[in-house]
Amino acid sequence: MTQQKTYPHHIDLAPVAHVAGTVRLPGSKSISNRTLLLAALAEGSTTIVDLLDSDDTQVMLAALRSLGIAWEQTDARTHVVHGAGGVLPVPQADLFMGNAGTAIRPLTAALAVIGGDYTLHGVARMHERPIGDLVDALNAVGAHIEYTGAPGFPPLRIGRGQLNAERMSVRGNVSSQFLTALLMAAPLMAKTGAVHIDVEGELISKPYIEITLNLMRRFGVTVEQDGWQSFTVQPGQKYRSPGVIHVEGDASSASYFLAAGAIGGGPVRVEGVGANSIQGDVRFAEALEQMGATITRGDNWIEAKSNGVLKAIDADFNHIPDAAMTIAVAALYADGTTTLRNIASWRVKETDRLAAMATELRKLGAVVEEGADYISVTPPAAIQPATIDTYDDHRMAMCFSLATIKGAAMRINDPKCVAKTFPDYFEAFAAIAK
Hints:
The chain is about 30% helix and about 25% strand. With about 425 residues, the chain is an alpha/beta fold. The radius of gyration is 21 Å and the shape is globular.
């Protein structure tokens, strides 16, 4: 077993010879926060099973309560949210959004449409993450959103506007969360006529839009699509509770354990996502297959194993930018240079992930080339022990734990940052380490 000692500021991980076992995944962050907001906006009460318990969902739950949305946790696996039917009982609130992009962006759009007197702010890094494209799209059709800090970034103040949202447009190449936010708010705007949303340029991270559209359908709203360039919400549609909704396991979190199975032999099985998942990040398993891992899929599970050295790949990861970080670490075990392309969105995540990954991979002895929207990783002859800085980014901490598998000892600084999506990550990793 890997040896772990938890300190206030770091955790030490010993080298791991082999990994095998089964991991039950926490709920998907993307599904959890979308579901919470849709349940709040819907008519009726929604029972949510297996909601992710993490910093990001706690931020959303607290915000909803501040807005007058009643909810309760009825047992360890179940929350019940009592929808307000497209209105908010509290018209004035100061909302702390932490560093949760999946919370602040859709909530900004909904609040701008409903109107009131709201302020939204977060941690320092949140105030460096762009939101200007979303604000511009909303203000262009009559919303009243002001920056109270640097233009283009939170914190924000939202007042009452006069929206005429027959046609909106938003850039698609910065964050798919901007389009998700407009889509989720569109039924609130489409009272007398259709709302058309046009995407300017390339839309990145399309699988995350598919999650949004799928969940909106579950809550009774259908969105018409013209490819990925235009979306239309017809009038007369309201969010209505589906009664009970189950949150899938987090496919991004699955990537660490599937990669562990590919690197360390396995088999490692993750439960909670499978062949029928609505999350695009399940396609991470396809990248592992390209690298030579053996992947098996069931309805609610995926398993990874391998028999030797992984193959280097050169691939476009625009569709799965979060899970792609795991490939950058798996590249340490490949037989050549692995290149991840079209990942410019890494730079506006919890940290500048392109710069952070390049810096930390070099500590392990890798040769790394970092570009505006790509990273290339050539593995060292032997992985070097290192102290890994995590930049208050949960995925940095989880990714670099993998370098202990057939690798070297790692000290992970600020391990508590995994609480953003997977508070028990290091315990789950220890359980598969042999």
